[in-house]
Amino acid sequence: MNPPSGLLRCGRHVLDLRRPQVMGILNVTPDSFSDGGEFFSLEAALAHARLMVEQGAAIIDVGGESTRPGAVPVAETEELRRVIPVVEALSAELSVPISVDTSKPRVMREAVAAGAGMINDVRALRAEGALEAAAELGVPVCLMHMQGEPRTMQAAPRYQDVVAEVMRFLEARVAACEAAGIPAERLLVDPGFGFGKELAHNLELMRRLDRFQELGLPLLVGVSRKSMIGGVLDVPVEDRLYGSIALAVLAVWQGARLIRCHDVRPTVDAVRICQAVLEGSEQSPPRHVS
Length: 290
Fold this sequence. Notes:
By secondary structure, the chain is α/β, with parallel strands linked by helices. The protein has helices spanning 42-54, 76-93, 105-114, 130-137, 162-179, 199-207, 227-233, 241-253, 264-280, and strands at 7-10, 13-16, 21-27, 59-63, 98-101, 118-121, 141-144, 187-190, 220-222, 258-261. The protein is 39% helix and 15% strand.
């Protein structure tokens, strides 16, 4: 039986999206743009995941392949070696759902068998066999927009209207999922900040983010420490916390239900304050007018 609207069944856990929540990032990679190598060992990964849950993360997103600009693809066997032991250990211990950040069907299958309750796919199930795997597994899926591939996506991204084009892509992927037997109530969408987008595209997406509520699906936003912050503030990755918080609040104000981040405690605080203001106001927040 599906849980009530706003509650997302993730394996044996339920993710409450009636209010915005925070997704903690756990990169078990040596080369992620922000924290590559920090949590590459199983012990370090487990300790960091525990800390993020203590700080208020409602779900942990485990990824074994960097998708930063210019990233080199990781072999399936290596991604499995990195991800599966972590997912097994976390799912056995933690009281929150585990998401697996992957595009590979075999990794999806083995991660869900190990206890993962969500698939977070930067390629929106476009890899061969991914749609079929996700349909069989029966867990929620986040569909993200990306123009191009990680190795080349920032070479020369072009859009006539970035919001309209990203929305059309996501609408098409939702339709493909439904045709494959994945119902809409198991889907989330992510506009893919920084994935095949220049600074102007990212800023426009954020400015008009509330348009994505028209899709009628929970909106996941990942802007933590990204280059758009460096582009505006001219600061390195390690100095992008305040910019990340500002963008997280803007996203929640415009309807985002899941904020994917590295810095959990300050993000949770900011999200809760923003939500308190929204719930306490006598009228809805301002809406974008096309």
